Amino acid sequence: MIAISRVSDANLAAQIAALEALLAKKEGELTTLRVKLVTAELRIEKLELERRKRLREKYGPASERLSDEQLLLLEEEPGVSAAEVQAESERGPLAAAVKPEPVRKPHPGRRPLPAHLERKEKMIAVPETERQCASCGREMAVIGYEESEQLEVIPAERYVLVTRREKRACAGCKRQGVRTAPAPERIVDKCLLSDRSIVEAIVAKYCDHLPLYRQSVILERDCGVEIHRATLDGIVLRAGELLLPLVRGMRQQILASGYVQADETPVPVQWKQRKGREHQAYLWQYGTPGGEAVFDFRLGRGREGPKEVLRDYGGLLQTDGYAAYEHCGDEARVVRAACWAHARRGFFDALKLNPLDAGAVRLIEQIDALFAMDRQAREQQLPLAERHGLRQKQARPLLIRLKEDLEATATKVLPASTLGKAIQYTLGLWLRLTAFLEHPRLELSNNLAENSMRPVVLGRKNWIHIGHPGAGAKVAAICSVVESCRRLKIPVREYLQAVLPGLADRSHRQLIDLTPAAWLAVRQQA
User: Fold this and answer.
1) Would the pLDDT of 109 be above 80?
2) Which of 49, 139, 244, 468 is the Cys-Cys partner for 353 at CB 3.0 to 4.6 Å?
3) Considering 397, 422, 437, which residue would you say is the last residue of a domain?
4) Is the dihedral of CA 271, 275, 276, 280 positive or negative?
C-alpha cells in the first residue's frame, strides 16, 4: 500500500508539472497574440491615416471640409470633378475641426487713404434750380462741403523720349574739331527701351509676376508697339548680368554677418539635353534676418551648391533637416541650428489626418508655447540680452518636459506613422533645435527664409520656367535684389533706376557701396 501511494504521488506531481508547463505555454502564446493585436491595431491606424492623406492630396484643399464618409464616396466615384468636390464639401458643417473658429473682431471701419498721396479736388455744385429757398425764394449760401475720398488711377502713359545731344564747333578755328555733349549712362546701350521702361519690365515680371510675353502683348494692344518677347527677354537678362557682381558683394556681406538662414526651392529649366523635357533645377537662398538675401542657381539639389557658397563660412547656420547642408563651411566654427516650424509641421500633419489625436495636440501646444514666448519678447521690444534671459527662464524647463513627452509618446506609436516620423525628426535634431538657448541671435524658425521663397513660387506659376541654364544665374541675381529690397522696405523701382545705369563701369569698391543695405544707409543719412 505504501508503494502504491508513492506511485500515485509521483504521477500527480508529473501531471501538475505538465499542466504548469502547458499553462506557461498558453500564457506565452496569449502574450504573443496580445502583442500582435496591438501591432495590428497600430498598423491599421497607420494605414487609415495614409488613406486619409492620399484622399486629401487627390481631391485638393476642398477635401479639408469633407468627412471620412464623404471622402470614401468620392473615392468610389472615379469620374468626379474638382467642381463637384467643391460643391459637396460645402453642403454641411465640419465633422471635426483642427482649430476652433477664431473670434471675429468688429470691423474697424473704412480706413483713410495714405496722407502722402497727392490730393486733387473735384468740386460738385448744387444745381442752379435747387439753390433757391423754398420758403422765401432767396439763394441759399454755401455752409460747407460733404467730402469723400477714392483712390484714382492714371493709366500708364507711354511716349517716345527723344534725346538730343548738343554738338559745338569753333567757327574761327576748324582744327579743334567738334565737341558733343556726353551720352547719359544707360542700362543697355543702343536699346529701344528707356531705362525706366527696362525697370518697369523687371518689376512687372519679378514683383508682379507678369510674364514677358504678356508684357509684349500689352505694349502692342495699348500703344501699337511691337517688341517681341525674345527681345524683352534679352534686355531683362542683360540687366540680370549687370547685377551679378553686385550680388556677389551682397553674398560676402551676408556671410560676414555670422548668421545665415538657408533654404531651397525647385525651378523648371528648358534644357536641350532633356530632349524637350524640362529639367528641375533649384534656387538656393541665403539670407540674414533683418538684412539682405541672395539666390544661387544650381542645376541640382546636391550638396555641391551650399558647399561652394559656404566654403569658408563660420557662424550660425539655420536650415531644415535636409542632409545637403551637412559638412558645409568651416566645421570647427559653424554652429548648426534647426527650425521649430518644420518640426511643428510634422505634428500638425498628424493632427490633420486624425483631429482626435491627443498626443499630437499636446505636443503642438508645447511647441506653440515656445513661439508665444518669443512673440512676447517681440511685442515688448526686448533687446537680445533680455530675450536670452526670458528663454533661459521659460524655454529651458519647457523643453525638458517636451523631450520627456516626445520620448514617452514614441513608445506608443508606430515609427512609420505620421506622428512617429514627426517625433523621430524632432528628436533627431534636438541639439540643433535647442541651440537658441545658447545663442541669443538665433530665431526659433527658418520662416523668414521660406517667406523669401514665396515670390519665386508665385513667379514660376506665371512665367513657367527659365528659358535655358545660362539664364539661371541672371534670374537669381534679379531675384536677389528684388527680395532684398522687399525685406529692407526699399522702393525697388527707385533702387534699380538709381543703380543699374552705368553699373558695368563701377569698381568692386563702388559695388559694395551700392548694395541695397548700403544704398539704404546712405539714403537714411541724407
Assistant:
1) no
2) 49
3) 437
4) negative
> What is the C-alpha end-to-end distance of the chain, expressed in Å?
123
Classify the phi-psi angles of 276: left when phi > 0, otherwise alpha if psi is within -120 to 50, otherwise beta: left
295 in the same domain as 238? yes
Highest mean pLDDT among 139-143, 245-249, 465-469: 245-249
Q: Classify residue 37 as exposed, middle or buried by CB count within 10 Å of its CB (0-12, 13-18, 19+).
A: exposed
CB-count exposure of residue 349 (10 Å: 0-12, 13-18, 19+): middle
User: Which positions ≥6 away from 49 have C-beta within 8 Å?
Assistant: 350, 353, 354, 417, 418
Q: How far is CA 112 from CA 148, 323, 496, in A?
A: 10, 50, 30
Domain with 362 in it: 340-437
H or E, element range at 491: none
Show Cβ contacts of residue 236 under 8 Å, excluding neighbours closer than 6 positions.
198, 201, 202, 205, 212, 478
Q: How many Cα atoms are found within 13 Å in the side-chain-facing hemisphere of 161?
A: 11
The answer to whether 404 and 422 are in contact (CB under 8 A) is: no
Q: In this predicted model, what pLDDT tens digit does every residue of 472-526 receive, in sequence order?
A: 999 999 999 999 999 999 999 999 999 999 998 888 888 999 999 999 999 888 7
Domain count, the chain: 2
Same domain, 344 and 395: yes
Q: How far apart are CA 24 and CA 349, in angstroms?
A: 44
Under 8 Å CB-to-CB from 270, ≥6 apart: which residues? 278, 279, 465, 466, 467, 468
Beta carbons within 10 angstroms of residue 466's beta carbon: 23
Do residues 337 and 436 make contact, with C-beta atoms less than 8 angstroms apart? yes
Give yes or no: residues 346 and 404 share one domain: yes
The bridge status of strand 316-318 relative to strand 293-298 is: unpaired
Give the distance from CA 337 to its chain's centroid: 18
